[in-house]
């Protein structure tokens, strides 16, 4: 966009209210013809909206979002194939399924986390299908990473089993550098509680001494 076009877009967005939080500044409009629902991107999950992170980057409100055609099987035990917790007994915004094996079920937030960690190795956690599965997840609003799998990054740091040992904060404040780690105090290294592939000094991410859990931006 040109500078003038960008300013016009900002002015127009300021006039529109998010149908989810009702606050102004909603710049995303449902792509369905005739639908004028607008929303903020951070509000999308609460409103069960879908944004597709490929192609034209289209967005849809809860009423017009794409739906999965996966059919429930009698043998389905309603367990998430990733976290093993209970899922709904039907396909919905929060409960998704694999279009290839028609059997895997998982929470939306679980498959989104897997997609960011798996990167270019993303596939169905049950049947390991990749092409139809990945296209279906993209269509349903799952955001993918183009990086290698996070577990390969962990192995690249050193021998298998070696603990990640550097600060990955956007701005490292440690005088000794990103590799400097102390057992206690502000330069103690905190690893991501989900992937353990990234870390931060306590001080670099404003973590208190009583903070026992931290997640990196990817997670």
Jot down its keywords.
219 residues; 8 strands; zinc; zinc-finger; globular; Herpes Virus-1; two-stranded antiparallel sheet; alpha+beta; PHD_PHF7/G2E3-like; 4 helices
**What is the SS-derived class?**
alpha+beta
Remind me, CATH topology of the domain at 68-151?
Answer: Herpes Virus-1
* Amount of beta strand: 5-15%
- Unreliable residue runs: 154-161
CATH A-level architecture of the domain at 68-151: 2-Layer Sandwich
Cα-atom radius of gyration: 21 Å
What's the N-to-C terminus distance? 31 Å
Protein name: G2E3 ligase
GO molecular function: ligase activity; zinc ion binding
Pfam families: PHD_G2E3, zf-HC5HC2H
Organism: Gymnorhina tibicen
Folded structure, characterized:
By secondary structure, the chain is of the alpha+beta class. Among the domains are: 9-60, Zinc/RING finger domain, C3HC4 (zinc finger) (Herpes Virus-1); 68-151, Herpes Virus-1, CATH 3.30.40. The protein contains four helices and eight strands; from the N terminus they run αββββββαααββ. The strands form four sheets. Strands 1-2 form a two-stranded antiparallel sheet. A two-stranded antiparallel sheet has the order 3-4. It has a two-stranded antiparallel ribbon with strand order 5-6. The protein is globular, with a radius of gyration of 21 Å. Keywords: Ligase, Metal-binding, Zinc, Zinc-finger. One of its GO terms (molecular function) is ligase activity. This is G2E3 ligase. It holds the Pfam family zf-HC5HC2H.
């Amino acid at each position: 966009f040109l500078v003038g076009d960008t300013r016009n877009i900002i002015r127009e967005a300021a006039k529109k209210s998010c149908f989810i939080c009702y606050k102004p500044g909603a710049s995303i409009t449902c792509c369905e013809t005739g639908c004028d629902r607008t929303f903020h991107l951070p509000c999308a999950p609460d409103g069960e909206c879908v944004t597709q992170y490929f192609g034209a980057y289209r967005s849809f409100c809860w009423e017009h979002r794409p739906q999965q055609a996966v059919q429930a099987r009698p043998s389905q035990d309603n367990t998430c194939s990733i976290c093993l917790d209970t899922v709904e007994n039907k396909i919905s915004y929060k409960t998704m399924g694999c279009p290839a094996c028609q059997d895997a079920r998982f929470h939306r937030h679980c498959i989104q986390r897997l997609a960011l960690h798996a990167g270019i190795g993303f596939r169905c956690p049950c049947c390991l299908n990749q092409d139809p599965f990945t296209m279906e997840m993209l269509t349903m609003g799952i955001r993918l990473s183009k990086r290698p799998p996070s577990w390969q990054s962990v192995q690249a740091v050193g021998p298998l089993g070696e603990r990640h040992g550097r600060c990955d904060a956007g701005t490292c404040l440690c005088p000794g550098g990103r590799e400097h780690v102390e057992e206690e105090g502000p330069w103690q290294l905190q690893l991501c509680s989900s992937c353990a592939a990234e870390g931060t000094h306590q001080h670099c991410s404003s973590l208190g001494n009583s903070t026992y859990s931290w997640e990196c931006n990817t997670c």
